[in-house]
Amino acid sequence: MAIPEPRDDNGGSATVTRRIDQAHPTVVYGLLAILMAAVFVPMSFFRLIDDDEGAYLLVSRLVVEGRLPYHDFFYPQMFLLPYVYGAWMKLVGYSWYGARLLSAFFSIALGLLLYRQAAHLAGARVWGVLAAVLFTFTSLAFGWYPIIKTFVLPTLLLFAAYAVLSTPSRWKWLASGALLGLATDCRVYVIAVVPAFVVELYLTEEDVKHRVMQLARFGVGLVLALLPNELFFLIEPDTFLFNIVWNQVIRTDLGFLGGMKQKIKTVRQLLAIDGAEGVTSFQFLLIFFLNVVAWVSAALSRERPALASTIAVSLLLVSLVPTPVYAQYFCMPIPFLVINAVAFLAKLAREGSGPRLRHVLVSLTIIYVLVSPFDLYHYTLGRSNVADTRLPTIRAVGRAIDREVRAGRPFAISLWPGYLVETRASILPGMENHWAMMFSRSVTPHEAEQFKLMSYPALVRHFQQHTVDVIVIGDWASDSQWMRPLIVKNGYVIKDRIASTEIYTLQPDGRR
Description:
The chain is mainly alpha-helical and 512 residues long.
């Protein structure tokens, strides 16, 4: 359905709309890809490091080397992400920059898919362009998608599972189920959106026989994509369940009431009610408000809920399940919230709301884009320990480690595994994840050994027995400072210092 031509009093906007609609599709996709690359690629290079990235990247290296998640090391996420990034780094080399560049590619692909879907729903490319621009300059998107986290890949797969349903293929429900399963293979709580797809299938497939057939296809695709999880489960059921589910129960001591207070506080900050999460709060509040108005309007008109809406609501709710909750979790609903907001605005334009709406829309879009540089600063410079969280610093530490590691003794100790991603060194078993030692406090010694968790007493024994020649003490773990007197006492001396990171080596005689 095409949008009615704007009146002559808006000749400029009419000309832009006409040119976008008449342009060759390749040109539009190409220009949008360049715009998104100009944001996501530099962010992937200059974004300050998030502590989880180090674990994800080292695990990606380990799976390429033949080790199995859960069975060989603790990994509190689903299995797919490290295999995807591991395969990529096998091609381009074990590099922080190379891995982050893959995340930037995923971000651009998600933005282009969002453009296509918004243009399809609204009936004109200009609305797709608006959706892509809003997505690109959303702080939660450019701040959390172009890094190595369990956000951009599952969101891309989930959005593809949604978008494929707009194609005429009779196998679209099979493909949708498979893509949804793959998204769940990256982040387990994505499975919560399955009911939204089932409801959509029920509402769109009117013939009972056809509905059952498509449901079977959707189920087959979903099960096939999730099947590898059954293999990991069969290898060691208790270990798999601890890695995926039970570690979340012992993750914090906030308790039920404390956890609820923390969740409510995060939501209030996200909506700019109780403080603010930088520019994120303004942008999220605006997009969320448009969605709420769209949902109320649809309910009053007795329209069936759009699939993008039910997915967005499902993701918003399930993002509140982990304890504690972080604002970054809400980056996954962003593409669905954006497409709902743009589709609603396009509907208002079709109903002839007049030039005032267009003026307001243009003004809000300009403000939305212009405030985003404030969070660009936050993600690239806005920390007290900027030097320690830059990629060049981490890579420099890796080179210093390589200078000290001997071929016959490749293992090193670091509470944060990210230092070893680009090195020849191997992390001491049990320390592949920086949360492992924290979890070891909440399980029995037998369970710590079973779940491949390094315990504090075991680590002290490694110091005493001189298991490794190299120990790294950085600024990533808040409790790392207790190590310093112990390792010095056991014959290790400081060999190098890079920013706040110290590299200790064992003296040849093992004495101070």
